[in-house]
Amino acid sequence: MYQHNGCGLAANQVDLPYRLFVMNTTGNAAEKEQQLVFINPVLSKHKGMEEEEEGCLSLPGLYVPVKRPDKVTISGYNLSGEQVTIDATGLFARVVQHEADHLDGILIIDRISPTSRIAVKELLVEFETEFNQRRERGEIPDDRSISARLAELEGLRT
Asked: Of 20, 49, 119, 131, which is most buried with the most CB atoms under 10 A?
């Protein structure tokens, strides 16, 4: 996350089968006191709406305007197992919504307007082409292997 100037990272972005994310709105590894972990996060009390530019570590170099509530309450657990509830605003609110989206399989490109999608279409085609090339080289598993891995991980929960 820090190596690529990110301010949040969801577990499923790095092949971990957990519903958690880590965040630090400063994006600075030296400011460890700003680092937070949310386990089993739940968002509620969405209020307001604002559109801001967002990027994503999963889609490097892509920055698009995304509409999100500007206030949200996040509840979850920290690494000590203590319940945490925070009324979030501004960048903090945007980051928790972005990372919670990842946990639900939603990317920023799923939240952009049709006009924005047209504007970044070429870059999205490049991502898809790179993905397909890496899959052909065996760097990314095929769908059957991914399904088997997910089934294996599901078995760990019992």
From this structure: 20
